[in-house]
Sequence to fold (419 residues):
Amino acid sequence: MATDIKHTARTVDAAAVMRLLPTRPRLLALGEPTHGEDTLLELRNELFRQLVEQEGYRAIAIESDCMKGLLVDDYVTSGKGTLDEVMEHGFSHGFGASAANRELVRWMRAHNEGRPASERLRFAGFDGPLEISGAESPRQALTALHGHLAARVDTDLLPCTADVLDRLLGTDDRWTEPAAMMDPAQSTGQSPEAARLRVIADDLVALLDAQAPHLLGIQAPNPLVGNSWEEKEEWHRARLHGRTATGLLRYHHGMADASAARMTRLCALRDLMMAGNLLALAERDPVLVFAQNSHLQRPKSSMRMWQGPVEWWSAGALVSARLGEEYAFVATALGTIRHQGVDTPPSDTLEGLLYALPEDRCVIDAPRLAAVFGDTLPVVRESPWFGYASLDPGHLTALDGVVFVKDVPHVPQAAPRPS
Fold:
């Protein structure tokens, strides 16, 4: 079997990944089994650089706040702001502290230098404005959408004024109350004001869609000539604000739910927001995506939480259902993260069998590896650290490939370099 497994392995590069696929997918996702390891992010950076330069991918999306990501996109496409500023304010989940993420942003800005606007590489966060401890206020997204429409359409068409919107939103700390994650009674998500805001958000999104020909400039006498590139960008951002506003209000409503299905619903709603953002990006350009494996896989995702085990369909599963072969997912698995107590994997696990290969890192043909195992799959590796999720051998047939990294060394976080 060891020889058969070795024949499924290739050097990690763009060409090896593309050989696993029948055609270039519209959305190509690379997963990670743990967050915060720059070794994995550096591998991502090199692979994505090759895929941009050799395969024509035009956007990079990572598991970070979609609203904050607009700051990063402004920087990499037009040089607005400074590298220090966007690393501090353009990422959620602490990802801006990563030296590898900093290098990705720096490279994207350099890649775009001197290119026409329509050919620049785009950056996007595709997560909602959510942290594990709660969700942001819908104020930023709702007011941006309302302001976009108020400046462009007859104000009589708007469902409310800006003053009414502000009054209904109230103070932001109503929405970001930390206790609401554990205690539904502390959430404002099912208040009368929140219910009214959900209707307003829906009406604003409907108005944005209904006014698309006007907002995009697709009208007589030149119906095929749209507005400028910058104005089209404003349209896409307005759509993002609409998705975010409705998604956040839906999520806050779920936070106020006291039923046993609460955490299952919240996990599903988060990935639904992710999927919506990915599909919108894929409408525009071929996209490279990076996130935790569980957000990108096709089988159901699962997690044990304080309310017990929960299962939900990931963003990858939702996108795959819509895009078919236009979606591809390559998971990452690893051997050790010794500084986190993840030592040499047992030999009867998938990671243990891959660890026996001579290469430090390789790309595995997942369906071919599944065929090697047949009905006798390796056992699932038990992770000694909650921050690392092992790869389920039963998922191999639902993967397009696996990147395996033998050892992740401890690399202390370096101080940010001056921009």
The longest helix spans residues 229-255. The chain has two domains: 1-57+286-410, 134-284. The first strand starts at residue 9 and ends at 10.
